[in-house]
Amino acid sequence: MWQHLTKKQINNFILSLNLISFNNLSNKEKLKLLYTISNHGEKHYKVFKIPKKNGGYRTIYEPDYTLKMIQENILTNVLNERIISSYAKAYKKGLSLLDNALPHLRQKIVLKLDIKDFFPSIDFLKVYKKAFPRHIYPEAVASLLTNLVTYNNTLPQGAPTSSYISNLVLRSFDIKIGSFCQSKNIAYTRYCDDMTFSGEFNPQEIINLVKTELFKENFILNKKKIKIIKSNKAQIVTGIVCNEKLSIPRTYKKFIRQNMYYINKYGLNNHLKYINYLDSKDYLNKLYGQILFVLQIEKNNKEFLNYKNELIKLKEN
User: Fold this and answer.
1) S-S: 142 plus which of 5, 106, 132, 221, CB 3.0-4.6 Å?
2) How many domains, in total, are found in the chain?
């Protein structure tokens, strides 16, 4: 379809994607900037590590201002037009953690699985084939776009395009697994690298199937994170308890309750000094976000509605 395009036609195709938001550049300068960054992408990232909740560190690749702008335009103008599976609940406009948890409400068994080293396992070729397929993009355009969204030939966690691309890469996997589950009356959702299954079923059958299908896609099932939860235990899916009704775990609410107690008793500044938290704005924003998360599930919780109002006043001071 695209084999007879001239260089000028390819460049016009690239320009039509509106990847550069700088109005003061000519088309020639825009193309030069895109090709230069795509050939030396590694120079345009800040690489750092953040601690994981369960120990160890996660490597984050933060693009600089120009590359981030290009990637955001790729996300808006190119990727958002591509359809992802209905089983994918993360990084999809209008969906939240609630949408991932709701299908698993009041089920006998909840099975939680995880993909090992998810983002580093998504290589250049996967992105090239699944995110920018040849029937939609000429080879030269697909190569340019893939270079602009990868780091050292893998998908960088921290780039604005990576999350949506990961959903495109796993679309065929989702459809295969989802179709099987539907035939067995099993609920299936995937939130990034976290897969959840629920219903009445043999967990080992699902584990074997997922392991096989992941292997076909060059992914590995994380054996250390396999969790089978029966209804007599708290069935927590993406931070939400799904047993009889959707609710927030007690430990999560207890943490917020303690923080609000110490703020009210000792004052914000004294509390922050005690816990050695230097950035008050960041602390209040995080605590406010946690309170909103509780209220998203428990809308009429008077205690947390009061906390919300207290935090708003603190944020305004």
Assistant:
1) 132
2) 3
